[in-house]
Every structure is written in C-alpha cells, then in structure tokens.
Amino acid sequence: MDFVPQFITWIGNLFSNLVAPLLNWIIEPDVGPGLASVILIVAALIIIQLLVSYIEDWFLIRKAIKILDPYQTEKSFSESFNTIDQKLSSVKKINIAWGEFTETLILPKEDGEGKITACANTERPHDFFTLDLLGMGPSFAKALPNIFIGVGLSLTFLGLIAALTEAVGTISSLGTNTADQTTNVQQAITQLLLASSAKFYASLFALFSSIILTLELKAASHLLHRALHKLNVTIEHGVRFQTIEILSRDTNEILEKQLQQLQTFNTDLAMKIGDQLKETFQPIFTKIESIGGDITESNIENMKNISQGIADGIQEATKDSMSSIAEKLDSVSDKLEGLGGSLSSALDNFDSGFKVVLQQLKNSLQESTENIAKDIGAAFDGMKSNIEGTKDDVGSILLGLKSTMEELSSKGKDIADTSADQLRTSMALASENASKDIANAGKAISNELAGGAEEMSASISKAAKVAKQQIADAGKDIADGFSSSTASLVNSLDSITLKLGRLETSLVSLPGQFLAVTESLDPMTKSMQQASGDIRSASAQFETAGSSLESTIEPLTRYVTDSKVAIESISKELHQTTVQVKDASASIASAVDILEGQISSQVKELSGSDEKLARLHSALTDATDEIIGKLVAFQNNMDKGLMNSIGILDNTIEEFGDTIDKYIKEKK
Description:
Shape: elongated
Helix content: over 70%
Strand order of the largest sheet: 1-2-3
Distance between the termini: 150 Å
Number of domains: 2
Number of strands: 3
Number of helices: 15
C-alpha cells in the first residue's frame, strides 16, 4: 500500500529537480519583459508573413478576374474559351480549381449553320472556387491567436509557480528574531510580487498579439471571399448553367432526333436495298416470264389429239344411243297418253249415260209424284215398272262399262309390258354400246397417255384423278338415272293396273250400292287423271335422264379441253422452274455480291458513326445467305417433286386404265 505514495513522491522529486533550473531562470527580474518582447516579435513576423500571403492570393484572384472581364457574355466566352482556358491554366492556385471546373463544362462547338453554341456548366463554380480548395486564406493560421493566448498564460503560471516556491523557501528559512522575520517576510513578498508582475508581461503581449492576428485573419478572409465571389459571378456570366432536368430534356430531344435520323436512314437504306434487290431479281422474273416450256409442238399437238379423241369418242358413243332412247321414250309417252285418252273417253261416256239414266229416273219420280193423288195403285205399278226398266238399263250399262274397262285394263297391261320390255331392251343396248365406246376411248387415252407419260407434269396426275372420278360418277349417274326412270315407269304402270282393278271392283259393286257409286265417281276420275299425270311424269323423267346424260357429257368434254390448256400451262411452268434454276442462282449470287459491295461501301462511309450499321450489315448478309439457302432448297424440292410427279403420273395412268376396265366389266 505504501508503494504508490512512495512512487508518486519519487516522480515528484524527479520532476522538481528537472523543472528547478527553469523555475530559477524564470524568477530572474528581466526574464518576463524579455519573454514578452520575444512574443511580440514572433507575432509581428507571423502577421507580416500572413499579410504577404493573403495579398498574393488576392492578386491571383484579381488576375483571374481581369482575364475574364472582357468575356462577360456567353457568346464572347464561348468564342474565346480556348484563350481563357490557356490563361487561367497559367494562374497559380487558380489553375487547379479551373481544371476541375472545366471537367464539368459542356464545351462550345459549332452547329450546322456555323454558329458556336454557348459553353454550359453542370456544376456551380462556387463549388470549386473556394478558399479551402484553392489553398488560400487562413487555414492553420486560424489557430494562432489561441496559441499565443496559451503561451502567455503558460509563462504567467510558470512565473507564479517559481515566485511562490521562492517565497515559501524564504519564509521557511527565517530565524526566531521577530524583527528579522518581519524583514525577511517583507522581502519574500516583494520578490513574489515582482516576479508575478514581470510574468504578466508575457500574458499581456500574447493576448495583444492574439487580437491583432484575429483581426488580420478576419479581414483577409473577408477580402478573399469577396474576390472569389466576384470571380464566380464573372464565370457565371460567361457560361450557361444546365440543371439535371434541362440536360435530361436535351438528351431526350437529341435521342428523338437521332431516332428520327436512324428511322430515315433505315428507310433510305431499306429502299436502296429493295431497289437493288429489285434490279437484281428483275432478270430472273423476266427470264421466268419469257422462257417457254420444253414441251414441243408435237407433244402439245398429241395432247390436243388425245383430248379431242376423248371428246369425240364419248359424243359418238352416246349420241346414237341417247337419240334412240329419246325416240323410244317419246313413243312410250304417246302410247301412255293414248291410254289416258281412252280411259278418259270411256269415263266420259259412262258419265253421260249415267246422267241420262238419272234424268229419266228423276222424270219418272216426278210423274209418279204428280199422279199419286189420283191413283195410288196405278202410280205404284207405274213406279215399279219404271224402276225395273231403270234397273235393267243400269245393269246393261254397267255390264258394258265392265267389259270396256276389262278391255282397257288388258290393253294397258299389254302396252305397259311391251313398253317396259322395249325400254329395258333399249336401255340395256344403249348402256352396252356406251360402255363399249367408253372402254375404247379409255384404252385409246391410256395408250396415248402411256406414250407421253415421261413428258407430263405433276398436275396431269391430279387431272387424271379428277377425270377418273368424273367419268365414274357420270357412268354411275347414267345407270342410276336409267334405273330410277325405269323403276318409276314400272311403278306407275303397276299403280295404274292396281287402280284399274280397284275400279273394276267398284263397278261390280255398283248394282248393290247405287248411292255410293254416285259419290265414288269423282275420286275415280281424279285417280285416272293422276295416273295419266304419273305416266306423263315418267315420260318427262326419261326425257330428263336423256338431257342429264347429255349435260354430263358436255362438262366432261369441256373438262378435257380445260385439261389440255391446264397441261400446257403447267408444262410451261415446270419448264420455267426446272430450266432457269441455275440462271436464277447465278443472278442471285451476282445480286448478293453487288449488294454486299454496296453495303460494304456504305458501311465504310458511315464507319465510326454508329455500331448499329455494322450489325445491320451483318444482318443483311445473314438474310442474303438465308435467301440463297432457301432458293437452293427450293430447287432441290422442285427436282424431287418433278421425279415424284412422273412416278405418280405413271401410277395414275394405270389406275385410270383399271377403272375403265372395271367400269366396262360392271356394265357387261
């Protein structure tokens, strides 16, 4: 526990021994004024040095202001910017801030009309031209007044410590004599006061020096700040301040103009490229339009002969048969009309006779009614005799009508059977003749087509398939028309026979149903008229079947003619596509070379303006290569398609011949 106090005591003794010489020196009578003199001299030197430095800085700022004074407008400043830059760059201290400031400037440049744009700044000059950044004005010197005050106080307290120590030593060494003690104490106090007063010299002059330095620093700072403010204002007059918003707006306007220019450039470039491509591909189109097919005139003539043979064969094969069918149908129609007339006349005779009987019956009944009052018995006898006579007359009429209807029915059946047999025979004969003619025409077509198969195109395959289908459909329609017409005629005759049988039954039952006969005569008449209409309809159907066959043959003939024209045009197109592929490839290659040369020259002229031009050149080159690849692929596909078309044509011809043979077998 005693170590700490002892250590502190040891340190104190050591420090006292070290400071003792200084304390002994400081209490000397002339030390205080001497220190004050030193402080004053040092302060004076510092004040002079700072004053010189501040005056130099002020002159530098004034020099910069004088350089900028002639260029107070934006126009003069922009036009003389290079001169201003060189002069300010040579001014010491100012050149550093000016270099930093020019990095934020938008330098003047000439526009399209030869005018120089104003120099613009994006940062205020006040941010660069400051005393701190320029290295001017009080920086460390601001602490000098406080330093002087501290030094003066330190010397004063040091002198007080020395005086008090000396006084304590003097008083402690006094003797026991009272008079001596008083004298010694007075001497000690006197020395203490003298030492203390001397040491206050240093504090006084240090404080005075501090005041002078403070005033100098404030005055220098004020003057330098005013000079810098004037310099900044002068710079502001010569430049145009651009805010972030203004720069963003100008940037957007520039980008919009650039976009418009790029659009215009792209449009012009696209038009030039399009014109060049058009000029390049025009020879291809001209050759494609001008070059004819490789089908010779003999092949075209053969195709014409084939088509004409098909048309003539079909017309000759069907003309006679259809004429005979129409004549036979007309005769059948006439016979059926005669049958209808006979039936109508028989019904008219029956109706007139029946009316006469009814009139006689009416008269007899009237006479009987008039005489009933006179003689009831005679009237009844007369009425009985009249009724019996009427019954006999009606019975004889009905018997005659029955025999007439039986004869008509038998004649109608004979006519129907005969007509149906003749019609079936004629239709079979016509169908057989038509089948033979169509088979001969099909064989001729097959033989002629087989000879020219290698020179036909892929379109003939489609035409042959369509022709096969239409011929098959036409034959089927003809057969169906004949079958339906014949069936309709047979059904009509059967209906007539059935109705005649019903009429016969009705006539047999007339004696027992006298009143019912009167009501059933009108429906019978209508039935007979309907039967006659059915017969006429059947005749019309036969006529329609004949016209349908003719209308079916005419489109087939037109189809053959159209096929001939289509074959010629398709053959020409195949020749154009096959023969001119190499010429097209060569023309395209030359066009690509020309296009690449022009694009390369344009890119060289515009090199360095924008990287997009290089990318555009690359894209155009790639597009051109892609076009060439597609054309080569198209050529290969056309060659493959032509070979496949020839194979399909052979198969189609074989299928066409098989179809004709099958059709002939079905008809047989």
